[in-house]
UniProtKB/TrEMBL annotation:
Residues 162-434 form the Proline dehydrogenase domain. Pfam families: Pro_dh. This is Proline dehydrogenase. The keyword Oxidoreductase applies. InterPro entries: FAD-linked_oxidoreductase-like (IPR029041), Proline_DH_dom (IPR002872), Proline_oxidase (IPR015659). Gene3D superfamilies: 3.20.20.220. Its EC number is 1.5.5.2. It comes from Myodes glareolus. Coiled coil: none annotated. GO terms for molecular function: FAD binding; proline dehydrogenase activity.
Amino acid sequence: MLWTRLPLSCHSRPSTADWQPLRFDGGAFHLKKTAELARALLVLRLCAWPPLVTHGLAFQAWSQRLLGSRLSGALLRASIYGQFVAGETAEEVRGCVQQLQTLGLLPLLAVPTEEEPDSTAKTSEAWYEGNLSTMLRCVDLSRALVDTSGPARNTLMQLKVTALTSPRLCEELSTWIQKSAGSSELSPERLAEAMDSGKNLQVSYLNTEQNQHLQASLSRLHHVAQYARAQRVRLLVDAEYTFINPALSLLVAALALRWNRPEEGGPWVWNTYQAYLKETRERLEWDADAAHKAGLAFGVKLVRGAYLDKERAVAQLQGKEDCTQPDYEATSRSYSRCLELMLRRVSQHGPLCHLMVASHNEESVLQATKRMWELGIPLDGPVCFGQLLGMCDHVSLALGQAGYVVYKSIPYGCLEEVIPYLIRRAQENRSVLQGARREQALLSQELWRRLLGRKA
């Protein structure tokens, strides 16, 4: 089955002169309480302080020794945890989501369970099976948070593949994929068949233990996708480090063959594309064409990327060519080109092509909204926007109030698990945190306005 061009809206193509850009001037902050704004300003300023981000885990251990676990935990809950995390229990998460929904925003739940690629601690099958159970509970929670009385929206959640399969295996597979391009031994079709049938998959260059782990990993991924499809929850697969991304893309392609068929109502499995990599625009176009030719729906989460510093350090250490864009401006140009490519695909293929514009950059968001207008893509159609909980609210709120579909990426869980996760995310998103000065200025401006009793 091939894609057909589907009309997205009935209005004629508007002229650029009719375009009215959104204003990201903090005007929508009136929807938030003063205490929330004050906490946001304090936390964003703390997170923009490089020593705190670099030595976050050491600061956490130091505060526990000095203040005790209870007081240290209370301070974290009132600050960083409270700003970026929905809560620990289902009731706390529901309360956070209900508050977001009153602001015109939707939840994108993220389980803060993962294994760092160089970790040696969490390698047993029992740990991965435990993560599987956690992911299935996240599917249930994501579904339970949907307001069935409101407008129909896609229910989304994030999926980290290395929570279900070893990064070492992914690295091994990635090396083989790059060496033997075109080999049928690791084709998406073969992996999809193994997922669907449950039959053992034997890969010649893997040992017995690795083959067993690969089969168990395929089973876990298939289980999550199958359960998510049954609960009508779409999975957005996170991108990770480049030395394992070929394997992740292969696994996503295998899942897509099964769950992104139009008759399934796909796409149920989306992949993430990182604009800070030099190859992304070409790979995105190739993957979109491949999905088109296979008659599959195609789902994309487009990000700038979060692993820049480590990617460059690894390339330098190994004497390899740097795969990243040379600077932020080049990354922004790459993001713009990828965004234009995907928006045109959406306009041509309608509900069979979905896009999340996952960006905190105002120019990228404005480009997306303007091109949606010019291409006739409706606000409640296959394009949505995504930002992190607790960040970029001046953009998220403005989009939500204007009628765009906006998701907030929401980690949840106990303090002990989530704080190390937040610190790693902060280290990966250094440039975003340090670039949040405009948001800090808008928050400060709104707080002073309230303090002085001025009208908006």
